[in-house]
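Re: [ENG-882] Designed sequences occasionally contain unexpected residues at chain ends

Forwarding the minimal case from QA. Structure tokens:
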């Protein structure tokens, strides 16, 4: 998933701030700038490793930027040329390159007098300038922060109208730090950029108001020579992000000092796969006290009139990589349980602690221990290993923690290590899932003892790749063009499915991410975002009309579309064979999980079957069915309220009025404005006890 600066989802951008008085400093007229070229370099950092660079060369009023990094064998490559007017605002901006998954970028902006025009992946547009305004590039590098900073600091209120839409603002947070490095100590102040996307971008300026760093709790882009400040900058980002989200939690989380009754509501029963008659559900101390058909005694309780709507057990996201901002968005979307499939172990532990303490909002979490082999293409989650002995030690570490359900094996692991790793995991009471490591195939991993396969493409690549082809690169995505040649009823497919059935191996297809990868096209609205896109900020609206993959010819276009049909056909055959399918996105969950669920109607699941799988059946799969997954007395009060009937029309789950997680109730329409999202429905009234 891409953010405004072309980073991967692991680089979710968080907050940094600055001294308020610094906003008053004047910005030098660029006409006085020395003609000699100057070059600045920033390092892209993740988990104490440099993944790439951003280099900006300024000569007069022209800035040329080269930006590239690689994580997990992929990342953006961008070359920009920016021309600034005497007022510091861009008069021309060109961007050429490729996004993380290879979509070609050829973006242009021009300001001729008062006539602005631009072309990006969504098409071409024009606007008339009636006041100072700044262009927000769709695929700009983080150097855009340097441009925004000069423009916004010159404005009294630190905000400015923006093209294509909205208002861009930078908010000083009052946080100032000293950072040591090769160039000597830097006095840096932190700001938050807001207005174009659902989350703020946090960055540091030095004493001269020049861009020093962009930071998040894990991902940092920092001035060259200051790479050793990673931990300091990540900590600051965590503090600032947490402060913001704790404030939102304090404003939007509701705990009641008496029982809560939801009346006049039909309850989805995942065991019967049906809605009940109109009922009353009473919650006390975070547990469901009673479910009564018809009216019930609500004396002494807070009461919400369900108005004939539906109460649905909290959804389960089976393929997440949870961060702080995403945790709250998942709650707003009715997701109360997430299976985390690999993360920074310490960061996730801290986040879970804050969620459990009630200072932050977020789903309950089932943890997966991520194990990856060290290579030029490795991912930077979990534990990296360089030998079978280290891999076994990683399994033991996860088992010793006591709060991991399984281990997840990744792309750069040496295939020869896998049988021993699987055996050790099972010996220590951990399940095993994962990608198919490079230079092997799904059949071999199933025979080695995998209990679940992660991503449908990881299974299907074994039918089209030669043994020597390296799936640590984007090949594991681009090779999907070959899928249309596969006979889904032929011996290769049948053998794999037979192995899955014989060994009781489940599948985590991540169907929706393949839809985005294979079917998104520049200028066309992605089907998965169509139902909610007009509620979103401009950056999200633009991303909804951008391709993920490079589509270089009509033949490639047809091949990718055919590949998605083959994926659908494969999932259909898996369903028909009784292979257990779990529903996860690898897209952050929340609204994307709603799309993941509705896609399974393509392979014959009914809405009721989908809801049952996404709640009780997945909870049972993870050994949690006695506490979660259905609305029954004694279970956790994890559910959400919608006006419609999702058994009749699954899209009803997209309009949520209330979410309960244990003893805390949220109204999504109170949460969404904090993220620049226009709410989808009203907030129900809560009648206090008489």
């Amino acid at each position: 998933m891409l953010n405004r600066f072309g980073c991967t989802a692991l680089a979710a951008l968080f907050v940094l701030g600055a001294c308020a008085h610094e906003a008053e400093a004047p910005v030098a007229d660029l006409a006085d700038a020395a003609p000699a070229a100057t070059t600045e370099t920033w390092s892209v950092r993740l988990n104490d490793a440099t993944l790439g660079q951003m280099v900006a060369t300024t000569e007069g009023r022209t800035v040329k930027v080269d930006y590239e990094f690689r994580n997990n064998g992929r990342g953006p490559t961008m070359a920009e040329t920016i021309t600034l007017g005497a007022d510091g605002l861009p008069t021309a901006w060109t961007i050429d390159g490729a996004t993380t998954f290879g979509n070609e970028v050829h973006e242009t902006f021009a300001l001729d007098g008062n006539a602005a025009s631009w072309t990006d992946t969504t098409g071409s547009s024009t606007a008339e300038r009636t006041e100072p305004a700044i262009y927000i590039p769709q695929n700009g590098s983080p150097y855009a922060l340097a441009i925004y900073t000069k423009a916004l600091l010159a404005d009294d209120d630190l905000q400015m109208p923006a093209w294509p839409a909205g208002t861009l603002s930078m908010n000083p947070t009052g946080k100032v730090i000293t950072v040591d490095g090769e160039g000597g100590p830097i006095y840096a102040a932190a700001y938050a950029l807001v207005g174009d996307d659902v989350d703020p971008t946090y960055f540091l300026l030095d004493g001269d108001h020049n861009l020093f760093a962009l930071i998040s709790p894990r991902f940092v882009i920092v001035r060259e020579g200051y790479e050793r400040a990673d931990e300091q900058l990540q900590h600051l980002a965590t503090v600032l992000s947490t402060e913001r989200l704790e404030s939102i939690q304090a404003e939007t989380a509701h705990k009641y000092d008496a029982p809560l009754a939801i009346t006049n509501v039909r309850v989805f029963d995942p065991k019967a796969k049906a809605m009940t008659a109109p009922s009353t559900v009473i919650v006390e101390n975070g547990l469901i006290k009673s479910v009564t058909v018809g009216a019930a005694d609500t004396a002494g309780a807070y009461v919400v009139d369900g108005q004939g709507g539906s109460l649905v057990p909290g959804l389960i996201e089976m393929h997440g990589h949870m961060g702080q901002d995403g945790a709250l968005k998942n709650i707003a979307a009715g997701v109360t349980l997430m299976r985390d499939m690999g993360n920074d172990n310490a960061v996730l532990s801290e986040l879970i602690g804050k969620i459990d303490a009630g200072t932050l909002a977020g789903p309950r979490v089932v943890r997966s221990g991520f194990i990856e082999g060290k290579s030029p293409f490795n991912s930077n989650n979990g534990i990296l290993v360089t030998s079978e002995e280290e891999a076994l030690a990683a399994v033991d570490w996860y088992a010793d923690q006591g709060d991991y359900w399984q281990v997840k094996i990744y792309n750069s692991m040496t295939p020869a290590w896998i049988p021993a790793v699987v055996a050790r995991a099972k010996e220590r009471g951990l399940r095993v899932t994962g990608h198919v490591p490079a230079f092997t195939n799904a059949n071999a991993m199933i025979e080695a003892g995998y209990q679940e396969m992660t991503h449908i493409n990881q299974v299907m690549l074994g039918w089209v790749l030669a043994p020597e082809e390296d799936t640590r690169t984007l090949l594991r995505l681009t090779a999907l063009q070959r899928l249309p040649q596969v006979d889904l009823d032929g011996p290769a497919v049948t053998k794999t499915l037979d192995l899955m059935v014989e060994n009781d191996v489940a599948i985590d297809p991540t169907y929706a991410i393949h839809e985005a990868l294979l079917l998104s096209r520049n200028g066309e609205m992605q089907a998965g975002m169509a139902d909610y896109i007009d509620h979103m900020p401009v950056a999200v609206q633009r991303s909804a009309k951008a391709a993920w993959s490079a589509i270089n010819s009509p033949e490639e276009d047809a091949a990718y579309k055919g590949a998605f049909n083959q994926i659908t056909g494969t999932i259909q055959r898996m369903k028909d064979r009784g292979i257990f399918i779990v529903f996860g996105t690898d897209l952050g969950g929340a609204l994307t999980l709603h799309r993941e669920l509705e896609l399974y109607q393509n392979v014959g699941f009914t809405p009721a079957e989908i809801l049952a799988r996404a709640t009780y059946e997945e909870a049972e799969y993870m050994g949690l069915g006695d506490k979660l997954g259905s609305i029954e007395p004694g279970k956790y009060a994890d559910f959400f309220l919608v006006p419609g009937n999702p058994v009749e029309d699954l899209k009803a789950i997209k309009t949520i009025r209330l979410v309960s997680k244990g003893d805390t109730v949220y109204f999504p329409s109170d949460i969404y404005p904090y993220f620049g999202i226009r709410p989808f429905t009203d907030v129900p009234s809560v009648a206090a006890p008489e």
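QA comment: On inspection the terminal residues look reasonable. Confidence is low (pLDDT under 50) at residues 1-31. Proposing we downgrade this to a documentation issue.
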